[in-house]
Amino acid sequence: MDTPDSSKRHLYLVDGSAYIFRAYHRLPPLTNPRGVPVGAVYGYTTMLWKLAEDLHKADGPTHLAVILDKGSTTFRNALYDQYKANRPPPPEDLVPQFPLIRDATRAFSLACIEEDDLEADDLIASYAREATRLGWDVTIVSSDKDLMQLVGTCSEGGGCIDMLDTMKNLRIGIPEVIEKFGVPPELVGDVLALMGDSVDNVPGIRGIGPKTATKLIQEHGGLENALAAAPAMKAGKLRESLIEQAEMARLSRVLVALKEDCPLPIPLEDFALGQIPRDPLAAFLEEHGFTSLLRRLDDGKGSPGPKTQLNPAKPETGAAPAAPQGSRQPLPAWPTVDLAAYQCVQSMGELQQWIARAFAARVVAIDTETSALDSMQADLVGISMALGPNDACYIPLGHRGTDMFAEMPLQLDRAEAVAALKPLLESDAVLKVGQNIKYDLTVLARHGVDVAPIDDTMVMSFCLDAGRSETGIAGHGMDELADRHLGHTTMTFKELCGTGKKAISFAEVPLADATRYAAEDADVTWRLHRLFAPRLLEEGGTRIYQRVDRPLVTVVAGMERAGIKVDRERLAGLSATFTTRIAELEAVIHEKAGGPFTIGSPKQLGEVLFDRLGYKGGKKGKTGQYSTDQSVLEGLAAQGAEVATLVLEWRQLSKLKSTYTEALQAAINPQTGRVHTSYSLVGAQTGRLSSNEPNLQNIPIRTEIGRQIRDAFVAEQGNVLLAADYSQIELRLAAHMADVPALKEAFAGGEDIHARTAMEMFGTVDRDTRGRAKTINFAILYGISRWGLAGRLGCTAEEAQAMIDRYFERFPGIQRYIHDTLEKVRECGYSETLFGRKTWFPRINSKNQAERQGSERAAINAPIQGTSADIIKRAMARMGPALIEAGLPNVRMLLQVHDELVFELPEGDVEAARPVIERVMAGAAEPSVRLTVPLGVEIGTGLSWGAAH
DNA sequence: GAGGTCACG
DNA sequence: GACGTACGTGACCTCT
């Protein structure tokens, strides 16, 4: 600071919500590179920029916070239910900009505050009062007339309050307030109470406007005096109104009064301005295409520009740049992980200190420790937090004694600690970082905490490095990431809790060990986040991470938590039927085989079929074992081997019973009575989700007998299930991406695409040619080989090759797509979806032909499968807000099955929900990508999942 | 833990 | 000429 009196504090309080409305109306409707409207965000960003430029001026801010309105109702609605009821909804293209305001604030590393039940004005008033009490000067960045009540007030402390209208570049002091209202600031509230406010729906007194209100207050010196003087006034409308509506005026006075004693969620000192780190700001400016600001950021010559304060120095942690594939990147200059440095938090005082420090840090890595792996059932045992390298703590909450005689460990009351952490975990001003934070979201949601905003290092790793590994599939687990990126070997859960029968619950781990383990996880997560955030920007992963995968984390957590109801009795009934039939089959198979054997053992079955019974066609694989899979058994059955037919039926029923009818009953959550799958966001290299424990993405549908299992997935009483499918989405995307006129035309015309293919290929459409065409269409999507196609179609490789040639000829574009895709992957090492998701293929140039060809097929498929995954993920991220906006808060999204979404909704909502869901799904590529084929969506409803198809 | 099989898109 | 023979998953079973 170059101010003479360097101890003088000057607090700027930015009225963010008010600003954004004004900026919206004053600025042209800009959109960012993704087509998202950002005009108001741009205005807001330039305003913050201007304020940042004032940093080093003599009377510039030393402290700054942005205050936002949070909810739509506040305590004032309890006083007067019509308060602000007349407000029109914000313009459609402004709505998506609200959350970006927070992003912008965070990008400047500024504090951002919003509280339920309070308006921004109240928080501003409370902070302003507190600051002046301490002798600070305060500038309120706003032009809101309500806030003018605060201007000029000097307390004993000596601090003064003024306002700054950045748009008009106007300082508002006492003279300006008097000019506007005709009265000094302390009487502004009385004037406002008389005149009312039509926008906020403050009633005031009908017939009294600003002029009369000012005159009355000037004459009588205050509202109560004016009301008291009314009976003595000369008869007329004014006198009558004042008498009749005196109570309305008094209510209005309360409504316009600012609440100056709100609890302050963040201490004033934490608003201290320091250097503004460059990287997050640059990332934000780039993401939204604010290129002129970005240039100014990097242009050191602009003086007196923000350069000196918006210091472009590398982040203090020295994040390492991306490493070339395969080589270890240089390790960041951080102190090595020191398990002894972590604090075990055992008092509320210590906890409060950590919370305050986390607010100040604005980024906190968190990790929850629980008693089990299932986030829907696990009990919360503790929470760890990290604010920097080795700056981490563990808060034990649910530990037991190490044995039944041991004393209970000293720890905070769980409910009390969670309540203390809740404002931090829910604060928009603080980014919560987790490794697989979806798990923590679910656990904490069950304790009433909705964690936001979030980052997930596992998902970040996936967006950077999907498929990227010399030896195979790159994992994104914490231990692996710590080793790969930090050169650090983490404590393993096994070391701590053991395995198998001797395993103990985390709740039984002694606090000292638990602290080392849990805090280390948070510490490592914090470090990984510091590495990944700049890499995403440099390597082009920001778009897919910020726009698709990050928003999805919270959405998917919600779906998992919702679960789906299954009809236990129905499953049990099916199980019993299957059991009986399986026993019958077993007896007959053993009889035909000439003795008992384990039918479920492919090895024994092969020997029975090909050695003992002497059937032909036995093929041994590389393990020296006969193959007995479906196609082999079907071949035997065609030769008249009845036992093969019986084994096929046995296999089908055994599969259905063990994997579905039995396992699903066991998967019903005893608390919710529903089945909660867990989705992995990093499970499939192409960007698809995967589902596990239980897998709800492979519930039978293709056979009649399997389909009965789908009928056991049901809606709650009074509700129905709605299933919405993209039809032929991958073929449509192939038509678009390879630019195939005939296919695009067929999709545009709503034709049967396989029939069209049959016509092009064979000149005629019947069952047979359509079926063959369908096979070929899929073969194309999966990276064709003549051998594979020949096997599927039952023809020779030469005939298959002829068909491939014909396909390329009829559908020009396909061959070029395959060629270009492979070219790019060979060159860059990765493929990309239309939305920029990368999948790495480290073995694309392998000397091993099988390996190489396998990579080539996967590389041809990945952009198509991945783009499809991006599209449905975008639809999922938008679905919740779209349904809320449509007034359908009771429609719940439950499942995703790659090209299908399943919802549960009140029967009465079906007709309203159908078009909303259809629109969101069909339009999910836009505005990022303009497809040249329509996306078809088919919707069905029913009391069960089976019936909804 | 690996291999085989089969449920799904 | 061998290699293996369509992309992406997860669960269950048997056997080592």
Automatic annotation (TrEMBL):
Domain 3'-5' exonuclease per the UniProt entry, residue ranges: 342-537
Keyword annotations of the record: DNA damage, DNA repair, DNA replication, DNA-binding, DNA-directed DNA polymerase, Exonuclease, Hydrolase, Nuclease, Nucleotidyltransferase, Transferase
Catalytic activity from the UniProt record: DNA(n) + a 2'-deoxyribonucleoside 5'-triphosphate = DNA(n+1) + diphosphate
Function, in words: In addition to polymerase activity, this DNA polymerase exhibits 3'-5' and 5'-3' exonuclease activity.
Subunit relationships: Single-chain monomer with multiple functions.
InterPro entries: 3'-5'_exonuclease_dom, 5-3_exonucl_a-hlix_arch_N, 5-3_exonuclease, 5-3_exonuclease_C_sf, DNA-dir_DNA_pol_A_CS, DNA-dir_DNA_pol_A_palm_dom, DNA/RNA_pol_sf, DNA_polI_H3TH
Gene: polA
Name of the protein in its database record: DNA polymerase I
Region Disordered: start-end pairs: 295-330
PROSITE patterns assigned to the protein according to its UniProt record, in alphabetical order: DNA_POLYMERASE_A
Species of the source: Novosphingobium cyanobacteriorum
One function term, GO molecular function aspect: DNA-directed DNA polymerase activity
Family, as annotated: Belongs to the DNA polymerase type-A family.
Keyword Nucleus: no
The enzyme's E.C. designation: 2.7.7.7
